[in-house]
C-alpha cells in the first residue's frame, strides 16, 4: 500500500510448480477446468487479509482422530500414527495461529460420507476429520490411524494411494491451500492420476511424508513428518523498523 | 557461483476431492463433531451494521451441469470496508461480522447460499477505491487448484466503472461474469461457470 514497504503483497504463485486445471488423466478435471487464461493482478487488501481463528475454537480431542469420534474407552482400528510438521511460508518463516483441517478414509479405505459406496466397512469409532491451530513457530501435530488405499471410478482399476487431505489457512486469503499428504514408500503413488497432475518428481516428493523413527513413540504410534509451505509475503529489511528509527 | 537464494516453494495443490465436506463441514456430511456446528456456516455473530443481503448461486461445469460436491468460500470486508483480519490496520471491523463464510452447496441442486452484508469499498494498492466486492474461492473434485474469483454487484455501476481491476480487463464482454444480479430486496444471484461460453473470470492474484 505504501512505498516504504509496509505492504508488498504476496509472492506470485509459481504456476509451473502447481498443477494445471486441465489434466485429462484425471477425468473429472476435463469439464471442470477453465479454458480462458487466469487474469493476473497483484494482491490487494482483499487477498492480504484472512479470517482469524482463535485457539478457543479447538476442542481437546480435535487433533486426535483415534479418539475424537470413538465411544468412551474405545479407539479407532488401524495403524496408529502421529503426523507432525511445520507450516512455513516461502521465506522460511513459521506461520503461527493458522487453522489446519484434515480428513481421511479409515484403515480400510472407507470414508464416512453419504456418497461413498465402497464395500469396506465403516469403523464405528472413526469419523475421519480433525483440526488444529499451529503453534508460535508454525508447528503442529495430530494423532490418527494410517488410512487405507481405496478404489475410485476413473480408469477401470484405479486405486488412490493412502493419503490425508489438508485444508490450510494462512494470514492472507491469497495463501489458501488444499492439498494431500502421501506416505513414504507407497507403491501406488506413481500409479495415481491425481498424483499424476503434479508436474515433477520434486512436487510429488514435497507431498510425501517420510517415516520418522526418532519421533515414533515406542509401543504406541509411528510418526510421519509433513511440512507445508504457503506463499510468502514480500518483506523488506526495513519492515520491522519503527517510524523515525 | 553467486550467493544462493534461499526460498522455499509453495506446497503443490491437490484436488479437495468429493469428500471435502468431511474435513471442512463434517456436521453437514453427517459426522456429529465439534459441538455440532460447522465453521463458516454463519457470518454473523450478532446484529451487524450495513445492508444485509443473501447471495445464492450455482457452480456449473463445462456441460452446464451443477456441481453438487463443491465447497465455496467467501471472504469480504464489512459494510464500512474493513476486514475482520489480524492484518487489518485501518480500523476495527464490525465485531459481529466475520467476513468469512463457507457453503457446501445443496446436495441435490448444488445451490450455495451466503447470508452476508453488502461490503464497503476497499482501497487498491495505489489508494484508489475498488468497487464493493467479495472474494470467492472454489474447490471440488476435478479442480486441481482452488479457483479464485470476485463477485461484484450489478447495482454498483458507478463504482464498478472506476474499479481498478474491472476496468483493466481486456475482454470487457466478460465483465458481467463477475457481477451478481439483483433478484429482489437484499437478494443477489451469482452463478459461476467453470468452462465454456459464459466462463467466469478467474484470477491469479
Automatic annotation (TrEMBL), chain A:
<feature type="domain" description="Intradiol ring-cleavage dioxygenases">
    <location>
        <begin position="83"/>
        <end position="111"/>
    </location>
</feature>
<dbReference type="GO" id="GO:0019619">
    <property type="term" value="P:3,4-dihydroxybenzoate catabolic process"/>
</dbReference>
<dbReference type="InterPro" id="IPR050770">
    <property type="entry name" value="Intradiol_RC_Dioxygenase"/>
</dbReference>
<dbReference type="Pfam" id="PF00775">
    <property type="entry name" value="Dioxygenase_C"/>
</dbReference>
<keyword id="KW-0560">Oxidoreductase</keyword>
<feature type="region of interest" description="Disordered">
    <location>
        <begin position="1"/>
        <end position="28"/>
    </location>
</feature>
<dbReference type="InterPro" id="IPR024756">
    <property type="entry name" value="PCDO_beta_N"/>
</dbReference>
<comment type="similarity">
    <text>Belongs to the intradiol ring-cleavage dioxygenase family.</text>
</comment>
<dbReference type="GO" id="GO:0008199">
    <property type="term" value="F:ferric iron binding"/>
</dbReference>
<protein>
    <submittedName>
        <fullName>Protocatechuate 3,4-dioxygenase subunit beta</fullName>
        <ecNumber>1.13.11.3</ecNumber>
    </submittedName>
</protein>
<dbReference type="InterPro" id="IPR000627">
    <property type="entry name" value="Intradiol_dOase_C"/>
</dbReference>
<dbReference type="InterPro" id="IPR012785">
    <property type="entry name" value="Protocat_dOase_b"/>
</dbReference>
<dbReference type="Pfam" id="PF12391">
    <property type="entry name" value="PCDO_beta_N"/>
</dbReference>
<dbReference type="InterPro" id="IPR015889">
    <property type="entry name" value="Intradiol_dOase_core"/>
</dbReference>
<keyword id="KW-0223">Dioxygenase</keyword>
<dbReference type="GO" id="GO:0018578">
    <property type="term" value="F:protocatechuate 3,4-dioxygenase activity"/>
</dbReference>
From TrEMBL, chain B:
<dbReference type="InterPro" id="IPR012786">
    <property type="entry name" value="Protocat_dOase_a"/>
</dbReference>
<dbReference type="InterPro" id="IPR015889">
    <property type="entry name" value="Intradiol_dOase_core"/>
</dbReference>
<keyword id="KW-0560">Oxidoreductase</keyword>
<dbReference type="GO" id="GO:0018578">
    <property type="term" value="F:protocatechuate 3,4-dioxygenase activity"/>
</dbReference>
<dbReference type="Pfam" id="PF00775">
    <property type="entry name" value="Dioxygenase_C"/>
</dbReference>
<keyword id="KW-0223">Dioxygenase</keyword>
<protein>
    <submittedName>
        <fullName>Protocatechuate 3,4-dioxygenase subunit alpha</fullName>
        <ecNumber>1.13.11.3</ecNumber>
    </submittedName>
</protein>
<feature type="domain" description="Intradiol ring-cleavage dioxygenases">
    <location>
        <begin position="55"/>
        <end position="83"/>
    </location>
</feature>
<dbReference type="InterPro" id="IPR000627">
    <property type="entry name" value="Intradiol_dOase_C"/>
</dbReference>
<dbReference type="GO" id="GO:0008199">
    <property type="term" value="F:ferric iron binding"/>
</dbReference>
<dbReference type="InterPro" id="IPR050770">
    <property type="entry name" value="Intradiol_RC_Dioxygenase"/>
</dbReference>
<comment type="similarity">
    <text>Belongs to the intradiol ring-cleavage dioxygenase family.</text>
</comment>
